[in-house]
Structure formats: structure tokens, C-alpha cells
Amino acid sequence: MLIVSISCSEKKQEIIANVETPFVWENANIYFLLTDRFYNADTLNDINFNRTIPTAKLRGFEGGDIKGITKKIKEGHFTKLGITAIWFTPIVEQVHGVVDEGTGETYGFHGYWTKDWTALDPNFGTKEGLKLLVETAHKNGIRIILDGVINHTGPVTEKDEVWPSDWVRTGPQCDYQNYESTITCTLVKNLPDIKTESNDLVELPKHLVEKWKAEGRYEQEVKELEEFFIRTGYPKSPRFYIIKWLTDYITEFGIDGYRADTVKHTEEYVWDEFKTECNFAFNQWKENNPEKVLDANDFYLVGEIYNYGINSGKFFDFGDKKVNYFKNGFTSLINFDFKYQAQNSYEELFTKYSSILNGELNGLSVVNYATSHDDGSPFDKERLKPFETATKLLLCPGASQVYYGDESARNLIIEGTVGDATLRSNMNWNDIENNEKTKEILTHWQKLGIFKSNHPSVGAGVHKMISEQPYIFQRTFSKGEFNEAIVIGLDLNDGEKVLNVSSVFIDGTVLNDAYSDTEVTVKDGVVKLDTQFGIVLLENKK
């Protein structure tokens, strides 16, 4: 994308023309979806491995698949939302059996109960389908983030045996009182924990050997493993097998990032080892596919450290030990603080985040979210504030995570569900097509999302308030030859409005209000608009 931009220094300068807008992960607008709940484009793959036992409500497979994501990319749903990356739940083969974890009979529809890291679960799709998804996304300027699980296997079921004892522990269960009781334990009952601390040599599990032989790929898998261990010099210990299997998806498909699951439950050095191999695989893919490379960014690794918040800066406190995960492979962490801090005013929220991200976390990033798949306390659970949610999430400094259905106020309170199942209903496509209120909400998310994707200063820039009443602020960002300034007004009067932009733009500058698509010119340090909206998004006219 080419735009005209202006220096982000305090002193106003002349416009610099035709500088390409860089994509920076610090400003990413990431769409997160449950693969099984987003869109069912292939009903022929809805039932596999005889998964036919009735489950508790929303705890079985509903039919969503890789083809469904690809279809919605082609239809432009993500592009119209200004989405720059899509993260979806794990698509590797899940345990075949059903589990009752105290919430009713449940299948591994969510993707976090791995049986085989080297295969895709046919309920989600095929590797050919994944290849097409990544290619389609990249052609639309959208990056793909897969969800990587190293910490645990799937549970034991009547169809799925426990992995060997040199691979996993089955107890004790974590009590989260300190570092040790958070990592050397099982997250919950019947979720075998990979011995990620072990450097002991282990053989391939018998069930994988038998499975691969039956599928006719045992020799190839073993050959690739031998080559990996020879190249790296790593011991044949559990974590390195899994790291190899996960990084294969980078080499083969050219994915752009991983969201690392249950990070704090695994020794921190494991993630540094994982990032090293991710970088190697990503560089290898770029060398082999130079015509498909989107940009010069490194491989993206964002961590889920449950209850980490931006207030903690670089460290997560276990009580007896503080860990800096940014020094262990991560350039970004999911921010669990946002849903609480979004209760504050715009200025309190924006100033705080800009100060931290341009201070202690300078060069690093957090991913803010208002709603997620396992967070029972979202910012707006009853969906009473969908417009405010979008405005605060998408205009806050930092990267943003749009959870599927945020943009359409998908219901988060589903009668008859237990636990987090209520957050995981099917995407409400019918509302998007037929409900006028939903369309109005969606339009708001689209306008803000596109503005964010066009302007790295929104998430990665420096925030400064221009005036409190009316509330107007600027964001500025600079990288290389690219310099940008934008001005935003919120909670303004409908109809005529005057914005003082003298600290940012010189007289005669032609601007566009991206929210109303209105052209204005700076005169005597101000711009005057007459629109029906209370929001103004000022950018240089392209």
C-alpha cells in the first residue's frame, strides 16, 4: 500500500509522498476463531473415527473446517474487517474418543487434545486444504498463525492410550502455588503432561509407529526425524520431537506465526528452542519460495501466559520466581489485563498503553482482546456495548485480537451449556446477512479495522491527547523512511464539528475522514466536518 505521510516529530513538516506502509506485528489486527465453529464448507468431513456419541451442548464437533475459513477469505469477510492475520485453533489430529471432564461428554473439537502432531484431523480438513488456505490468505495480504501445543497430549479415552512414561507424566495435578507446581504437573486430571524438561533419549511411541505404518508413511517420518536430529544435534527427547513436528508446518506451508499454548506450564527455555527452529524453518521457506514472501518480518511467536497482563511489563511472577518470556523467544504476549482496563476512559486506557509499549516494552508488543475462547469474564459478555468494544479494542495501542463473532455481537450466553462452551457457539452468519442491527455493528468494526490496518501508528505509534473536550488525539509512528501521523476524535457531536489539528498538520493539507469518507482541508489549524457520526478518523488523503 502506498500513502502520503508526514513526519511524526513534534515539529510539523512537509508531506513525504509515496512511501510504502510497512506491516508491523505491533499493529496487527488478528482474527481468532475456533476452526470447528466458524463455517462448515464441507459436510462430508463432519464425522470421522466413529465420533458419534452424543455430547453435552456445544461439546462435540459442529462441522467447521479449513475450507470454511478459505471460503470466507475469498468472500472478503476478513479483508473488509481490516484483518491482517488469522489465528485458528489447532488442526492436528485429535484423540478419537470422548471424555467427560465434569462438564459432560466432550470430543476434541477445540483442537487442544493432540493424538498425532504430524497429521491433520479429517474433521478439520486436509493438508491440501491447508496449503490452499495459506496461499489464499497470502494473496489477500493476510498472514496465518497456527496454534502450537507442546505442553501436553490429548487425554486418555476408551480409544486413545496414554503415551509412554518416558514421554509424559500423569500426575500430580498442578496447584499453581509456585513455579514448580505450575510446570511439572498436569494442567487438569487426565491430561498427560509432556516431560519437556527431559533430555533423556526416547523412542517413538508404539501407537504412532503402528499408525504411521498403517498409513504407509513410517519410513518417511523416521527419515525426516533422523535428518532433523543430525542437523540440530538435539537429543531425541520429547520436546524436540514435537518442535520438529510443529516447525514442519512452516517449512511445508509457509505459515507466518505460532500462538504458543499454555506457555507458563512449560520451562521457559523450551520456547527459545522452539523459536530458533521456527526461524530456521521460516527462512528456509522464504529461500525456497521467494515469490511468495510477504515482507521481511521474522517469524511471529505470541505467547499465551494465562493471567499475564501489560502491567507486569516484561515479567510474569510465579510467586517464587519471575520469568521474562520476551527473552525466551516471544516478541508478543496475549494481554489478559485489557478486558479490565477497558472499563476506564479512552484517554486513561490509551495513555497507559502507549506509555508502557513505548517505554518498558519498546520494540515488543502485547495482543489485546475483549473476548476469547476460555475467558469467562469478557469485557462485554451480554453484548450490550459492541460499538464501545470495537472502538477501545481496535484503537488501543498494541495489537488486537478480534474473537470470531465480536464483529457481529455473537451471543456469548447460550442456555444449556456448561463452562466455556457458552463462548464457543457457531458463528452467527445468519445475523450478518439478515439482521439490520448486526449489519450496523459490523460496519463499525469494519471501518475501525480497516483504518487500523492502513495505519501502523494506531497500534504501534505514540499516543498524545490534543484536547480533552472534545476528545481528540494524535498517533505518530516512524520506521525507516516511513513517517506517519493521524488524528482521531471520539465521542464528538453528531453533525457539525471542528477539530484542532494544528499540532499535527500544516494549513492546506488535504485529509480524509476514513469513518465518513469525507475530504477536508486544514485551514487556520482546524478542520470542519458535518457528518452524522461521533467519530472522526483523519488520515492524509491518498
Walkthrough of the structure:
This protein has 15 helices and 26 strands. Helices cover 28% and strands 22% of the residues. The protein is globular. It has two domains: 399 residues, TIM Barrel (Alpha-Beta Barrel), CATH 3.20.20.80; 79 residues, Immunoglobulin-like, CATH 2.60.40.1180.
Shape field: globular
What is the number of E strands? 26
CATH superfamily of the largest domain: Glycosidases
CATH topology of the largest domain: TIM Barrel
Radius of gyration: 24 Å
- Low-confidence runs of at least 5 consecutive residues: 1-16
Q: What structural class results from the helix and strand content? A: alpha/beta
Discrete helix count: 15
Overall average pLDDT: 96
- Between the first and last Cα atoms, what is the distance in angstroms? 10 Å
Sheet-strand content, in percent, reads 15-25%
In which order are the strands of the major sheet placed?
3-4-9-12-13-16-17-18
List keywords for this structure.
globular; 26 strands; 8-stranded parallel beta barrel; 6-stranded antiparallel β-sheet; 542 residues; TIM Barrel
Outline the secondary-structure elements.
Elements: E1 2-5, E2 16-20, E3 29-33, H1 35-38, H2 66-74, H3 77-80, E4 85-88, E5 92-94, E6 99-100, E7 105-106, E8 114-120, H4 127-139, E9 143-148, E10 168-169, H5 180-183, E11 193-194, H6 206-214, H7 218-232, H8 238-253, E12 257-260, H9 268-288, E13 300-303, E14 315-317, E15 322-324, E16 332-335, H10 338-341, H11 346-357, E17 365-369, H12 386-395, E18 399-403, H13 429-434, H14 436-454, H15 457-460, E19 462-467, E20 471-479, E21 482-490, E22 495-500, E23 510-513, E24 518-521, E25 526-531, E26 536-540
Parallel strand pairs: 3-4, 3-18, 4-9, 9-12, 12-13, 13-16, 16-17, 17-18
Antiparallel strand pairs: 1-2, 5-8, 6-7, 10-11, 14-15, 19-20, 20-21, 21-26, 22-25, 23-24, 23-26
Helix pairs in contact: 2-4, 8-9, 12-14
